[in-house]
TrEMBL record:
Annotated coiled-coil segments of the chain: none
Pfam family, one: SpoIID
Full protein name: Stage II sporulation protein D
Upper taxonomic lineage: Bacteria, Pseudomonadati, Nitrospirota, Thermodesulfovibrionia, Thermodesulfovibrionales
Positions of the Sporulation stage II protein D amidase enhancer LytB N-terminal domain: 75-162
Gene Ontology terms describing biological process: sporulation resulting in formation of a cellular spore
GO cellular component, one term: outer membrane-bounded periplasmic space
Length: 331
């Protein structure tokens, strides 16, 4: 971001005494969060300053150490925060406060597991562990909701492991019918991530319709005004794998997961598309569910908790063969 945007986006409210985290790269009691959804492309970053403060960034409050880094593309901000406080913020942002207790606990364990796996993966090769956006997990300052405080406290340090290692605990908002196989989205198999049937949910994403303008699609696909769109292939779970676009002269086939990425994911909520039609001012997609479809379905966890399942049963259903392990705050 530009320096002017940085100034407008950040308001340091107050400086005060906070835990100052060390430089032990194996310490999983804290996490380094890149704030925002802009990631640096170059490795020419310079550390400018570290402050212990509370900050407001684009309307969200962050507590803990705030590091300012500068690169050729602008300024980047890192929030260094206690892992458990981070998990509270993720649960608040990802699901909300009025969910069943066992669903909140399941989300807390999944979020903590994902965070620890990213710490192991990224800390030795990057200046941050995760971003605060949907690229990893949405993270905003926890507002201290009692239900979430309790869920995180009662699962403190708990992560999912497979053969002794933290798993890639992918999760998503809503699947209808069944979840997706990871190789269809991430190009890789995981023994603990398999497509499973899911219950009906009260999700607001059960059915959706989205219209995308021709201009937006032209920029995304480098193709002139679209005259026809066809579903070209499906995944083994019935999701749309590839779409074929035509302007009457040229055709272009693209993986639906890639199109969602180019369009910032929410433009097409999921690959569970049941119809595509071309209208005068754009293309209308109709489908079900929300998210990539891999791992725990959050709204399905909501329903399972409502039906009496505990968080361990929910996690075991979506991540079969895993174990719950409690990590030491300093390991």
């Amino acid at each position: 971001m530009s320096i002017m945007r940085l100034i407008l986006s950040i308001v340091i409210i107050v400086f005060f005494s906070l835990p100052v985290y060390g430089i032990d790269r194996n310490d999983k009691s804290f996490i380094r969060v890149l704030l925002g959804d802009v990631r640096p492309k170059l490795n020419d970053l310079k550390h400018i300053k570290k402050v212990a403060s509370k900050a407001i960034i684009d309307g969200s409050v962050y507590s803990g150490e705030i590091e300012i880094w500068k690169g050729s593309e602008g300024y980047f901000l890192i929030n260094v925060v206690n892992l458990e406080d981070y998990v509270k913020g993720v649960v608040t942002s990802e699901v909300g406060i009025n969910w069943p207790e066992e669903a909140l606990k399941a989300q807390a364990v999944a979020a903590r597991t994902y965070a620890v796996a990213q710490i192991i993966r990224n800390r030795d090769r990057n200046f941050y562990d995760v971003t605060s956006s949907v690229f990893h997990q949405v993270y905003r300052q926890d507002e201290g909701a009692e239900q979430i405080e309790k869920a995180v406290r009662e699962t403190k340090g708990q992560i999912l492991t497979y053969e002794g290692q933290p798993i890639m605990a992918f999760y998503h908002a809503c699947s209808i019918g069944k979840t997706e196989n990871p190789e269809e989205v991430f190009g890789k198999n995981y023994p603990y991530l398999k497509s499973v049937e899911v219950p009906s949910t009260p999700s607001p994403y059960t059915l959706w319709e989205k219209k995308i303008s021709f201009d937006t699609l032209k920029k995304a696909l480098s193709i002139d005004k679209i005259s026809d769109v066809k579903i070209k292939s499906y995944t083994s779970t019935g999701r749309v794998k590839e779409l074929e676009f035509s302007d009457g002269k040229n055709k272009k086939t693209i993986r639906t997961t890639e199109l969602r990425r180019i369009l910032q994911w929410t433009a097409i909520p999921s690959t569970m598309i049941n119809s595509v039609k071309v209208e005068e001012d754009g293309v209308v997609f109709e489908g079900y569910g929300f998210g990539h479809g891999v791992g725990m379905c959050q709204w399905c966890a909501f329903q399972m908790a409502h039906e009496g399942k505990n968080y361990k049963e929910i996690l075991q259903y979506f991540y079969p063969g895993t174990e719950i392990t409690t990590i030491n705050e300093n390991n």
